[in-house]
Queue: 2 jobs
Job 1
Amino acid sequence: MTAHLKQDEPDTRNLLDDMVQGIIGKPLARPDGLGKVTGTAPYAAEYPIANCLEGVLVTAPFTKGTITGVHKDSVLSMPGVVAVIDDQRLTARAAQGGAGEAPAQPARKVGYFGQPIALVVAESFEQARDAAKHLTFEYRAENVADVPLDPEKTDAEPQDGATRQGDLAQAMSQAAHSVDVTYTTEGHSSAAMEPHAAIAQWDGNSLTVHASLQMPNYNISELADALDLGEDQVRLIARYVGGGFGSKLGISEEAVAASIAAMELERPVRVVLSRQQVFQTIMRRSETSQRFRLAADENGRLTGFGHEARVSQLPGESFAEPVLQSSEFLYGGENRLLQLEVARIHRMTAGSVRAPGEAVGMPALESAMDMLAEEVGIDPVELRLRNIPECHPVNGLPYSSRKLAECLEQGAEAFGWDHGPRKPRQRREGEWWIGTGMASAARVHNVAEARARVTLKPDGTALVETDMTDIGTGTYSIVGQVAGEMLGLPMDRVLVDLGDTDSPRGPGSGGSWGASSICSAVFVACEDMRATLAKKAGVSVEELKLKDGGVIGGASLVELLDGEELSVEGHYEPGAVEDDFTASGYGAFFAEVRVNRFTGETRVDRMLGAYGFGRVLNAKTARSQCLGGIVWSIGAALTEALLFDPVDGHIANCDLAEYHVPVNRDVPDLEVIMVEERDPAASPIQAKGVGELGMCGGAAAIGNAIYNACGARVLGFPMTPDRVIAAMPE
Amino acid sequence: MRPFDFQRADGLDHASQLCADGDSKPIAGGTNLIDLMKLQVETPQTLVDIHRLPMGQIADTDDGGLRIGALASNTATAVHDRVRSDYPLLARAILAGASQQLRNKATTGGNLCQRTRCYYFMNIDQPCNKREPGSGCGALKGIARLHAVLGTSDQCIATYPGDMAVAMSALGATVEIADTSGKSRSVAVRDFHCLPGDTPWRDNVLEEGELITAVILPPPVEARQLYRKVRERSSYAFAMVSVAAVVALEDGRFSRADLAFGGLAHKPWHDPRLSELLLNKEPSAQLFDEAADVLLDSAQGYGENDFKIPLARRTLAAVLAEATGMEL
Amino acid sequence: MPITINSQTYDLPDDPRVTLLDFLRHDLALPGTKKGCDHGQCGACTVLVDGMRINSCLSLAAMHDGDHVTTIEGLGTPAAPSKLQQAFVDYDGYQCGYCTPGQICSATAMLQEIANGWPSDASESLEGPMEASGAEIRERMSGNLCRCGAYANIVAAIEDVAAQEDPA
């Protein structure tokens, strides 16, 4: 049976708080932990499947054109080579998150340098890898000099949905204080530690694919569509996912290629992308150029707010890095102009990388706000506090629950923020200037439709099944905690079965909607189940107190079930409540950095993030998400930049040696504050998203600290030593 | 990786014979060679395993110097008692490079022969005169962030990426090389690596079949030894610029100023004019600036790497100030 | 000579191109050792060879004849985890878990390196003894990338074990 909830109203019952098992929110260790630390948790490429062939993708050595012929015989006589796949169904790109349909086909139409064009299949990995380098093919390439590659030198299309209110130009000219500044950010790569991988098996009618996926619920449609199969012929399994950060939202080239090969060759086929291929063929976060015009009165209250941004994308792709997202509602200012434009260029596909939009929009905004605070001559924390609007500055909607002020205040307090006058170059230790900076955090709250089946077994244990994934976020933990809390079961009596499309469709892990959406589906199922159990126990559902496998002072679940099994599929849908509120997670970052006055090197000495994201479902895994967000902030602030070749648009630094994700030594002592909050409009469990919020603005706290330390106002992220030196006053 | 014939050398002579053919490569730690073989940047037909040859010893020389066997791991060198006490610059340079895992495998000889990290060299879909003579230089019109500003040619602007050799250059070390006939020759580390000129495929002076057997450090001197590596990431990253310094003062004047630089050129950069300028002079901000003028008088940037010119100047000043105890 | 892995001996692969990493993952069905980059740039493939940590991706299996290799599977099991393995669970020293076996193998060797008095780039002095301080652990663990950003918890887990009398 199914229990359904479409949330049209805020749920202020806070039912989880009335439960008595006492595990919700607790910092419990992950049930999947021992598997991970002992190397026994299997990731996509690691299933021992007999007779499995190995496939390696071949990529295009040109930017734009068409593959006109593939010389299969150039490799078919090589040892171990079984086949060359250049099927029309091979995909040229990964699907965008939530696409639910096949990504661009066929692969022979090339739109960016390094695009997959064929698959070489052999008995061993070594044979396939070598043969893939030997495959010859013919192509017609357009003159690369005529192919647009530089977003700054290409005309851009304005996107729909611009905000125009009042007269920003006039507000700027009449402002007591104003800032007009343009910040740039470079492209980013998700760089999840597990490369994209798939093992496909075909039994003549149905396809089973072990793959590394964030959203099997969409991926099943994408893969079925790409292969012209029915969804009922496809099963995806993704029980352990070695990180996603957006890069595994959509079905990607290796899964489609492995599937076609398995179907054609009637043998299992494994395809794992090389690290270089992950960089070149999956998704980049677009570089951005963002102009801010901030107008304020003498007290620093915003009268005008302008945020105009340019991002880039391949022609034909709809995704555009939504950098304005939180600028829409975070601060006031009655005269507003927010406009996003997209330059169409032939770099690889732009798509979602952790916190698309705010990950780069917020650092730029919060840097401009730091300049405004200096302009006005007030403390930057105070500037934020003065500009928290009563309601959405354009549509007038109320905020659902907003802990921005609390985060700013509690964060400042815990960090030991000095509210005094701020002037650069006040502290020096030897070669190092030391300074502090802060920034607000904001990330829109999302939810998505979700289903999960909860089964109470006659032995009094529960099983939760959904195709939802755990990409490191803690889904195994929190799903178990919600079910255990509602049904009165300790964690070791709840088995959570994730990542298999034979189970009910979850929401997928993306947009930070996973936790609140899937846990709401589990909650809905459990609420229904509690009504049944209350009836069996002869009490009202309000009176039903379940703990440790039974009614407190009454029958055990085993007795209540009496040999029966109870199974309910919870079905949660976002509803009209979304239209009535502006819902977002909020926070504040505080950082202390040191900048070497000779070399411009920046090291973060300490950093704090204070966040309000509704109910905390597991304090340990939620904190870890926040820690990860701060680490990403450090990377975005100081080291991460994709470098695109100006001649053909390929990524020059397409490996982990030269694309610098932070290392352990880059990360100092970190402090996380999770502000107590329930957001009844966000979800029936009063929770909001965590993972992305953790990085939305953090890079600005570091950049502002660099300015405070040494006086270098660097107008581009990342703030590498060369840029810091160039901006440093002598 | 292309198929190759795997041979195990049972002695130095055997290894030299096996390596005499231009399509053979010796392999010891393999941390650079296997990396490049997977990319098919290196495609040896024969791989000669030398890693178990007894060439890993680190031993005192008769004159009080130190002989570091070609197969001593970077870790073994960095933690060696005498390296730590007498050649701290070398220990520091090694420890500033790569990761412990890589240093545990990488060897003295292999590290000297480490190839460039130029993006275009490492990508066989791109032109590179070093990898494929005559194909052009992708970096010249492309992304030159890692690239050289000194001693470049119109054929190649790649850098030597290592740290260890920069320290060895400043220390005035010598490379001991065995040829195929069993004869030994010595080349100063400062002369071991080549500039690209019009033979950019040539990284160093090794002839076919020649193998590095050791590096000889001269007897230690009374001096401050500093290694400064500038990098945006605080660890596990190649140098943007690095400076190795062996510096001593007598009566407030430089009595020794041996400097070498990483990240600036196709080789660890050593310019004898620097010590000529500095010797017998009192340290001062102006003098450091003059030293930088000399160091960089022929420097040329290629866009993305223009920053290396001011960065080298500033880093040199920082190192000289630290070495002389001056406050700048 | 055969290779010994987690106390069991195996014959080396026929194809000399097979790396130690692929030999473990494919040929021996020991996928606990992870392939993150295959080029020595991430540390996910870290294993111990005669007690020393190396990147198994940059090592040919054929060159390990006679060597004793310990992988994550050899350090502990879900029923009997090592102290470091348990500490990583307790401190949430991971998220997605993909870099975790490499981190733990690396940390296992690192504690021994500190006990040996080996210096690091973060050491004030090159002369021992060395301490398992936060700054030392951070530098010494920098050859193991964690994209989830679990570093703070990884350091906490290692510090806890290092402070115990017998970290093994």
Job 2
Amino acid sequence: MTRRRVTIALAAIFGLGLALRVLALWIEPPHHPDEFFQYLEPAWRHLTGAGVETWEWRAGIRSWALPGYHGAWMALAMKLGVRDGLAIGTFLRAHWALLSLTLVWAGWRGGLLLTRRSLARKVLPTASTSSLGSDVPPMGWQGGLLAALLCAIFPLLVRFSIHTLSELPSILCMVWALVLTGELVEDPGPSPRKKAMWTGFLIGLGVCLRIQHAPVALVIAIWLLVARRARLLPYVVLLSLLPVALFGGIDWATWGTPFSSFIAYVKFNVLQSGADIFGKLPPSWYATTFFHRLPVGLGVLGLLCILGLRSGWPFVASALGLAALLSTQAHKEERFAMLCWPLLLIPAAGLVGAWWATQKARADAAEPGKRPRLRIWIARAATALFVVVVLGDAALHARGNDFADLSPDRFRAQIWAGRQSDITGLLYDEPLFTGGYMWFSRPFPQVMWKPTLLHNPLFSHVLAPRHSGLSLAAERAGFVEVFSAGNFAILRRRAVATP
Amino acid sequence: MDGWVASIVPSRSSHRRRPWAWAIALLAAAWCFGLVAFVLADGHFEATLPRQRTPPSGTHNLSRWDMGPTVRASSYFGDFLSHHHPLYLVDDREQPDLVEKWASAQRDRHPWIELLWREPHDLERVVLRHAGALESSSFTARRYSIQCLTATGRGPRVDIESNTEPVATHALVCRQARGIRIELERNGDDIVRLYEVETWGR
């Protein structure tokens, strides 16, 4: 393999990752109401005056940082004349999908790093590379490419990449922070302080976005101490305080007190166990869910992570720490633990890459006539099998999400209704499972139905599952079906002659 | 490895990096512009209903929903279930459900609403159906002002200091009015609730 070929392979992986994310934009259903009502709708409401305000926003347990970030893009789009909520929402999803490709780059660097860490412990026969000249690929490229490939096309990561949830940016920050820490430990390069400061900034930002990801920060600190890089720790800590101060300042400006939303969030979720009202699940739930997602592949990943523990322990420890922390919380959702996947995929890829590199080196050093090519082909076949097992298994079990009732058909129907010129109000059966006012793109009321509201002249349209109680009541009140999407129908009030 | 990485991501001084750096700088500048616009937005509500009938020649409710009024509001209480939308102010419902009222948002310290018409009218009186008409009398707004809006600015105004009427009628004669603006004071820390606003004139 030449450096040029590795570069082409890496570019192809990025291309594949991009193509899959574009596909996800088309076919991926909504994942969680929070992606609309916590991180988009508040910004939309602030700009247009129309929107749902959830109890979290009235209670002040959310930071304006992420909605503010989205809101800046929304305001920019509106200044440019784009006022369609769906168009702006699609842009924001595409933007996160693009940003999620940085995980592929982090996977490449992480895989490269962990493969080199594994290889560093082995005494490999050296082969002459003089024939390759300056076109020699970097050591550990096998693990780098494998990790990049897994991060690019692992189905759950592809699916998750388009959702406007706080987990995604935090995942990007935490994985990058771990990779940069690994590079600081292995080969700090010419400017270790700068890299340490970036690491700190990413840790701070990742934890501020998702406090549950804090175990990664702890592992990073331990890693630096164990590797005798404690002199870099102050830079990490100092720069991690920058996002913390920023989030505190945003709370001060929006809620009136520094760290107000953070304190309220911790009080509600940790001290009062408030999230329990959204459902309690047993401590083993995350393990069971991971197993359901990857019934065969999880065993393979687990085994590889154990075998490669000496080099990849910070990644594995971060994943286990996160899973353990989340398992102590009664309320559980799969999205909370999404960070575990790249933290397991990268070290597994690093170990497979190291094994592949070892076989290649031995084959290169073998005496002529000892069929060295067989060894290479076995290594390649085993690597391909690993990729097929993990990705195939994940693809077969990729369906479903935390909210099974979030039907894309309901969203399609709502969007259709919002585009009707004669609409003045929409009644529906379940407000939580829609895209809010942003997807509706109209300032007219859209509320959960009550029999009496069917007689309010403002409500010109009804969104209901076919043959449901609402659908039948609407028909009795003079509504007729004018559109359908899957099992959902839009009914319109019959025109009434007015004086 | 860093050397190899550097060959893919060119160094700061490389000419190849400049288009990327410019693109990122441009995006950052555009985002900052958007952020300023976002921060400066006051979050007020505004909606215009389609006109569904021709205004009669005699005295009538100028801001009824089917006349196609524009409703503006400083805010509204937008919970999933208690969604007190400003357009309920003009839905002309005689027996409304408790949800069919406008309520200001909790953080709105200076609630106001504006009802605007499609063409100038001669305003005679304004009728406010307060929450006290259907709920606790303590929900009725005590202090508020109603001001006539004209093409040239603001017209006559009435200030109400201690209202107790659940359905309050206020004479407000205003020629060639374009609408009205009501500024309400909260009763203590409570939000403002209002079921209907009727503007009678011709």
